[in-house]
Amino acid sequence: MVGSKGNSVQSPELDSVEWAVPELLQVDESMPNKEIAAKVEVAPTPA
What we know:
Helix content is 43%, strand content 0%. The chain has helices at residues 16-27, 33-40. The mean pLDDT is 85. It is an all-alpha fold. The chain starts with 15 loop residues before the first helix and ends in a 7-residue tail after the last helix.
């Protein structure tokens, strides 16, 4: 990808958890944070 001034812009590498979260939300956008965390096997954020 090239930025507006011609410099190269790199996309950050995403890990499996970072890919899984939006995929889960595409299936059920109302899924609670705790359920998402359990499905991707990470600790939920305090909210």
